[in-house]
Each structure stands twice: as structure tokens, then as C-alpha cells.
Amino acid sequence: MHKNKYIVIFSHILVWLVLFSMPYFLSYQQERDINRIIAHFWLPLVFYAMIFYLNFFYFIDKYLFTKKTIHFIIINVIFITFFLVFKELIEAAFFKELVENDLRKENGKPPFEMFIYMQMLSYFAPLLFSIALKTTKRLVATEAERKEATNIKLQSEIQHLRYQLQPHFFFNSLNNIYSLVDISPEQAKSTIHSLSKLMRYLLYETNTEKVPLSKEIDFMKKYLELMKLRISDKTQVISTFPEGHNGITITPLLFISLIENAFKHGISANKESEIFIHMSVKDNVVIFKIVNNNYPKQTNDKSGSGIGLQNLRKRLQLLYPNKHVFKSEVVNGRFFVDLQIET
């Protein structure tokens, strides 16, 4: 902020230095009349600067931006008229000879029309420029505030969705453990231990914007091991994950909802079931595909909350706008998911 402030101040000083030095550049290798330069260049520039900064720092904010346009116009007309008269008085008092010479060149007739049109226009120029500059500055500040507010809202939504996902994941995992308690208490104990490791990752390692893809893969592998404890021999789970890719980072917990969904809707107690999970990386695009049988959830099945895929779609829209492809469809009793994320 301080650096930008100094840059703005330096820019203003530089502009006025250029303007005040223009008479010398324009009269290069010509005889310079210092009185003429003061009267016709420097004195008006002082008044231009006063009009500019009075409006830039006070009048525009107090009157124009508060929709007191009439007051704004009247005040500026008064100030411009005052500066015009004051300039004439200064010229008459300190540059009388110069004024008389100018009148003599005009055959004794003051250039009244030139004074009305050119002088008034020249004094309105800094006024209009201050309005344009102040308005642009205000628009830039408003846009910056809008973007900041949007970003805060975005982060709040993402955080809400993340907090929503963790209980959802924990709830589904507890359902799996509950089904093992009577069948295999030892497996239930092992599952609780595995779940504690997964929850440690959820609680302590996913509170960042991005995590290494390798960590997310390890999490998914452990989750698959946990899920395989409860499935029967009639269900086959085949998964492939890429090796390496240590330089790739990704938002955590984007794929787990798809895996949960595959186990929730792709397994039957009395039918053969298959779940195929494949992840690959091509350039900077992470490709995640799942194919599983489609066994629609019964209306009386209250397991889970059904928010997993909705959560995922919202997070993708917020985190990877125009940088992801998410397709899902049912074909011949199989559910296909194709998710591609540009990291």
C-alpha cells in the first residue's frame, strides 16, 4: 500500500514538472521572455492544479458522488470565475507592460471572444480530467472490493462444503463398521484402526488449499482397503493409480465421493458386482474414471445422506471453473464416471 502511494505521488509530481517545463521545450533555441512564460503558462497552471486537486480530494467526493450535482457545478463555476478574475488582476498588477503590448497587437481591442471560449475551456479541462481520474479510481476500488467479497464468499462456501464432507465420510464409514460388528468383531477392530488413520488425514492434512496428489492416492488406497473388508466374494474391486507425479498438487477429497458412491450403488448382496477405478495423469490433467454396476438405492435405505455427488459438483464449480470436466451416465446397467481436472 505504501509503495503504491509513493508511486502515485511521484506520478503527480512528474506530470506537473513536465507541464511546467513545456514552455522551455516549446521555445527551444528561441528567445525566452520569462514574464510571458510566467503570465501565460505558469500562472494558469497553478490555477489548473488548484482546480484539479480541490475537486480530486474534496468536491467530487462531497458533492458529485453524493449526487449533489447542482451544488458541484455551481461551486466549480464560482471557483473558475474567481481564478479567471484573479489571473487578470495579477496580470494587470505585475505584468502591465506585457498586457499593454498584447492589447497593442490586437489594435487596442481585448480578445474578448478568445477569452470567453479558450480561457473557460482551458479551466474546465483539469476539472473534467479530475472527474475522469477520480471516477476511474473509484471503479477500480469498487471492483477490487467486489472481487475480495466474492473471494471471501467462495472460501466460505468451500470451507462449508469441506466440513460437510467430513461428517458424511465418517457417517458412511461407521455404517460399514456397524455391519462388521456381529459378523467379524476382529475385522471391526481392524477397521476402526484403519478409520482412525483416515480421519487423521481428514482432520490434520486436508486443511490446506492443495495437497500432493501422492497423499490423496494413499488416502484412497487405504479407504479401498477398509471398504474391501465388508464386501463379499461376489464383488470384485480393481483399481489402478499412477506412480510418482510428486510435483502435482490437487484440492483434497475430490475423488472420495465417487468411490463412496460406487460402493453404495454398485454392490449387490446376491449378484455379481464389479467396481473398476482408474486414475492417470496426462501432462497437467488428472483423469479419474470409475465404472460400476448400477443398483439404485432403495427408498427405505437410510444409509448415508446422499450429498456426496452434489458436494463434489459444487466444489468443482468453485475450485476449478472452466478447468474440469465431470461426466456421469448409466449405460446398460453400468454407471460410468469420467472426471478430468486441470491442475
UniProtKB/TrEMBL annotation:
Keywords: Kinase, Membrane, Transferase, Transmembrane, Transmembrane helix. GO terms for molecular function: phosphorelay sensor kinase activity. The chain crosses the membrane at residues 7-26, 38-60, 72-94, 114-133. GO terms for cellular component: membrane. The keyword Ribonucleoprotein does not apply. InterPro entries: Bact_2-comp_sensor_kinase, HATPase_C_sf, Sig_transdc_His_kin_internal. Residues 157-234 form the Signal transduction histidine kinase internal region domain. The keyword Transmembrane helix applies. It holds the Pfam family His_kinase. This is Two-component sensor histidine kinase. It comes from Formosa algae.
